[in-house]
């Protein structure tokens, strides 16, 4: 299926919304997954539970921004919030 090039791009977020529409919602998810992996690999020098908590929390912050811009839907926002919850539980359960 072919899509027309964006003609009315007034803001930078309009380009993100267009790319998300063309890829059937995979652009936003891919961007969040890539961001999560980059942050996780950057913070792996700490324990893996702390690296997971830091990367999931920062990904959730970026997801909130993308959700406000209309790039991702509420489903991705909820998934990121769930990962933050899992990381908090993991940190508290493994506390020594």
Layout of secondary structure:
Blueprint: H1 12-22, H2 26-42, H3 48-69, H4 74-93
Helix pairs in contact: 2-3, 3-4
Description:
There is one protein chain. The chain is mainly alpha-helical and 96 residues long. It has one domain. It is 73% helix and 0% strand. The chain has four helices and no strands. Helix 2 runs antiparallel to helix 3 and helix 3 packs antiparallel against helix 4. The longest helix has 22 residues.
CA-to-CA gap between the ends?
Answer: 55 Å
The portion of residues forming beta strands comes to under 5%
Let me know the number of strands: 0
Please estimate the helix content.
over 70%
What is the gyration radius calculated from CA atoms? 16 Å
Offer a concise description of the structure.
This protein is an all-alpha fold and 96 residues long. The chain has one domain.
Highlighted features:
single chain; 96 residues; mainly alpha; 4 helices; 73% helix; 0% strand
């Amino acid at each position: 299926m072919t899509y027309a090039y964006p003609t009315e791009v007034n803001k930078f977020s309009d380009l993100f919304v267009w790319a998300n529409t063309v890829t059937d919602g995979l652009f936003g998810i891919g961007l969040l997954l890539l961001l999560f992996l980059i942050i996780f690999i950057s913070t792996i020098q700490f324990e893996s539970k702390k690296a997971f908590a830091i990367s999931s929390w920062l990904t959730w912050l970026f997801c909130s921004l993308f959700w406000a811009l209309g790039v991702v839907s509420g489903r991705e926002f909820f998934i990121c919030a769930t990962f933050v919850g899992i990381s908090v539980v993991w940190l508290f359960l493994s506390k020594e």
